[in-house]
Amino acid sequence: AYRTDEGQPWVLPVVKKVEQLIANDNSLNHEYLPILGLPEFRANASRIALGDDSPAIKENRMGSVQSLGGTGALRIGAEFLRRWYNGNNNTATPVYVSAPSWENHNSVFMDAGFKDIRTYHYWDAAKRGLDLQGLLNDMENAPESSIFILHACAHNPTGTDPSPEQWKQIAAVMKRRSLFPFFDSAYQGFASGSLDKDAWAVRYFVSEGFELFCAQSFSKNFGLYNERVGNLTVVGKDADNVQRVLSQMEKIVRTTWSNPPSQGARIVATTLSSPQLFEEWKGNVKTMADRVLLMRSELRSRLEALGTPGTWNHITEQIGMFSFTGLNPKQVEYMVKEKHIYLMASGRINMCGLTTKNLDYVAKSIHEAVTKIQ
Amino acid sequence: SSWWSHVEMGPPDPILGVTEAFKRDTNSKKMNLGVGAYRDDNGKPYVLNCVRKAEAMIASKKMDKEYLPIGGLADFTRASAELALGENSEVIKSGRYVTVQGISGTGSLRIGANFLQRFFKASRDVYLPKPSWGNHTPIFRDAGLQLQAYRYYDPKTCSLDFSGAMDDISKIPEKSIILLHACAHNPTGVDPRQEQWKDSRDTLSSLYWRKRNLLVYFDMAYQGFASGDINRDAWAVRHFIEQGINIVLSQSFAKNMGLYGERAGAFTVICKDAEEAKRVESQLKILIRPMYSNPPVNGARIASMILNTPDLRKEWLVEVKGMADRIISMRNQLVSNLKKEGSSHNWQHITDQIGMFCFTGLKPEQVERLIKEFSVYMTKDGRISVAGVSSGNVGYLAHAIHQVTK
C-alpha cells in the first residue's frame, strides 16, 4: 500500500471530500446494487481503462462487471473462461502467468478450475530487465487459444514493463497464434502519473481488434484498499456477444457474492463523473506517482554517488510500487538482520516504504550489503 | 469471429422479472410484493437510526482505508459469533470456533460450500428443504457439491409437512450435509416450533442428528428480524450446539440491520477445540484469498460499531423489533381484512408463518390474475414479501386476493 513521506497511509483528499458528499446525501440508502454493480461505476471505470474515444465504447462492444477489487475481477473472468472459453468447461486450456508474477494469479485460476497453469519467461535476472525473446518464444510455442495474464503496467513484482514497441511485438504474436489476452490493471495512473500512458497497452490491443478481459483495481489509484473496488472490463467483437457474456457472468456473480458492495463504487462513480472531482483525483494520483518516482531517482543517485558496485539505472527504469533491486538472498538477509530493512528474499522492495528521512540509510545499507556480501 | 459465439444467453432472473414488470405498470394502485428488502409503512427503504449513528461515529474517527485481514474485521467477526451463539456460550469462552467475515449471506454460504467441498470428504451431498431459497442450489452446485432435498412444506396446509420431513430425513445417509434455515424460512415463512426441534423422538431433533452423524449447516439470514427477539430467533442454532453438534453457520446482516448493499455477513465453523479452529481458519483464508483477497470494510464496521457500542446495540434491538412487529402487524391486518371481505378460506397460515415472506397458497392462475387485473406483483409460487405490504395498501391486497380466490 502507498505511504506518505511520513510513512503513513494516505486517504486521498478527493476521497474524503466525496465521502462527505455521500454522507450528507439523505436520498441515499443501503439497498442492494444490481448483480453486475452500480451502473455509473461500471461505465466510468471501463471508460477510464479504454479511453473516452475507444472504438470498443463507440461500437458498443464492451461490458463491465463491478467486482470485489482486482482479485474479484480476475476471479469472475477466470470462472467465466473456465466455463465458456475454448469449448465448454475446457479446464485443460493452458493459462500462462509471468515468471515471476503476483502469487495470487496462480491460485485464482487454479481455484477457478484450470488444470494447466504454466509460466512464461519475463524477468531476466542477469540483465535485470525484460526477457523479451524468452517471452515471445513462449508465445510462439504456446498451444493456440492459451490464456495469457498480462500486467497492463507496473509489473508486480519486477516493476519492469514492455516498451510500446515491445508490446506491439507481443500483440502481433498473440494475434497470429490466437492467444487470449487477460490484462491485470492494478496501477493505472499510479505507475507513471498519467492514466492514458498507463493504459497504453490495453488500448493498443483493443485497437488491434482483440477480444480481451481487463481486471481493474481501484485499491491503489484511489487508495480504497479495504472497500474492494474493482471492475472487469470485457471487450468483444460486437454488442450481441458481449451481452451474452455478461449474462453468464451475472450467473457466476450471483453464486459468489450475489451483488457487490456499494460504498467504494459510489465514491469512484461520483469522482469520475464530475469534471472537477475527476481533475482533483488525477492530481491526487499524480502526487502519489510523483513521490514514488522521486524516491526512485533519489535512491539511484545516492547509490551511484556512493559508487555501489553494479549498475543502478534499473531503479529508475522500473515503474510502480515495486522494484527488483537485484540483491541476492544473502544480501537480503544482511539487510533484514543487520540493518533492519525489510524486503522480500527476491530482492523486491516496496518503493512506498522509502522516505526523505530514510533514503540515506537505505542507500548506505544497500551499499554495505553489496560490497560486504557476494 | 468471436470467442463467444457459442455462449448462450443466460436465463432471465425470475424475481427480477417481477420487478421489471412492476416498474412498467402505470396503475396507481400497483404493489410490488416480490421485493426481498424491508419497506417502512410508506413503502420506502428504511435506513436504521442506529446505522446512521454508527456511520457518523465512524466518520468522526477518520480511519484509514488499509486492507482488512483476509478473515475480516476482528471486532465484527467476534461480535457476530457472540450474537449468534450468545455471549455466555461455552463455544465462545473456549475459543473452539472460527468466524470469518463473508460477503453477506451469499458470500458466507459460498465460503462454507467451498470449504466443505474441499475438506468434507465423507459426502458430496447437500440436503435442502423443499422448497428453499432459489440461490442455495446454484451456490452449492458451483462449489462442486450435489443437491438433494427433504420434504418440508406442505402445500395442502401451507405449513410444515412434519411426517414428510421426518420420513425423508430418516433416510438421509450418514455423514451427509443437511442445510437448515435457522428462522424465517425462505421462501415459505414456515418454521418448526421449538417443541418440534427438541423432541428426541422425532427426526427434526438435534439429538437425532448427532446420532445420525449429519453435518448441520445453518443459514441464519433473519436473526431478530423474524420474531423481533434475537435470542428467540437463534434458539435452534444454540440448541443444536448445546446438544453437542458442531454446526457450521452462515449469517447475514442485510435484513436485520438493513445493510443490504454493504454486504456484511459471516461464516462460522464450530470445532473440537481452539487448535482445530486455528487450522480451519488457515484453510478458510486460503479459500478466500483467490476469491476476492479480503472483504469490504464498510458494512462490517457499521455492524461492529452497533454490536459493540451498548447504546447503539440497545437502539438496534428496538429497531429490529420494530421491523419485525410491522411485518407481524401486516400479517394480522391481511387476515382480518380477508375476513372482512367475506373470504371463507382458512388464512391462518399467513399469521402462523414468520419473517419477510409468506407462501399464500395461491395457485399460478390466481397469481396471474392478481398481476393482470389488480397490478399486484408476486412470484408465480404465490410467495409474497410482507415487507411490501403497508397499512395503506393491505385493504386493497385483501380485496384482490379475495376476488381471485372466492
UniProtKB/TrEMBL annotation, chain A:
Example GO molecular function: L-cysteine transaminase activity
Subcellular location: Cytoplasm
Key word RNA-binding present: no
Domain Aminotransferase class I/classII large: 2-366
The encoding gene: Got1
Cofactor(s) annotated in UniProt: pyridoxal 5'-phosphate
Keywords from the named record: Amino-acid biosynthesis, Aminotransferase, Cytoplasm, Pyridoxal phosphate, Transferase
Segments crossing the lipid bilayer: none
Single Gene Ontology BP annotation: aspartate biosynthetic process
Keyword Transmembrane: no
Coiled-coil region(s): none
Gene Ontology cellular-component terms listed: cytosol
Pfam families the record matches: Aminotran_1_2 (PF00155)
Enzyme class: transferase
Lineage: Eukaryota, Metazoa, Chordata, Craniata, Vertebrata
Misc remark: In eukaryotes there are cytoplasmic, mitochondrial and chloroplastic isozymes.
Enzyme Commission identifier(s): 2.6.1.1
Protein name: Aspartate aminotransferase
Homology family: Belongs to the class-I pyridoxal-phosphate-dependent aminotransferase family.
Subunit and partners: Homodimer.
InterPro entries listed in its UniProt record: Aminotransferase_I/II_large, Asp_trans, NHTrfase_class1_PyrdxlP-BS, PyrdxlP-dep_Trfase, PyrdxlP-dep_Trfase_major, PyrdxlP-dep_Trfase_small
Reactions performed catalytically: L-cysteine + 2-oxoglutarate = 2-oxo-3-sulfanylpropanoate + L-glutamate; L-aspartate + 2-oxoglutarate = oxaloacetate + L-glutamate; (2S)-2-aminobutanoate + 2-oxoglutarate = 2-oxobutanoate + L-glutamate; 3-sulfino-L-alanine + 2-oxoglutarate = 3-sulfinopyruvate + L-glutamate
Major place of residence: cytoplasm
UniProtKB/TrEMBL annotation, chain B:
Residue ranges constituting the Aminotransferase class I/classII large domain according to the UniProt record: 29-401
Subunit structure: Homodimer.
Record's keyword terms, sorted: Aminotransferase, Mitochondrion, Pyridoxal phosphate, Transferase
Superkingdom field: Eukaryota
Location relative to the cell: Mitochondrion matrix
The protein's required cofactors: pyridoxal 5'-phosphate
Record GO biological process: L-aspartate catabolic process
Entry's family note: Belongs to the class-I pyridoxal-phosphate-dependent aminotransferase family.
Catalysed reactions, semicolon-separated: L-aspartate + 2-oxoglutarate = oxaloacetate + L-glutamate
InterPro entries with a match to the protein in the record: Aminotransferase_I/II_large, Asp_trans, NHTrfase_class1_PyrdxlP-BS, PyrdxlP-dep_Trfase, PyrdxlP-dep_Trfase_major, PyrdxlP-dep_Trfase_small
One Pfam entry name: Aminotran_1_2
Organism: Sclerurus mexicanus
Name of the protein described by the UniProt record: Aspartate aminotransferase
GO MF term (any one): pyridoxal phosphate binding
Note: In eukaryotes there are cytoplasmic, mitochondrial and chloroplastic isozymes.
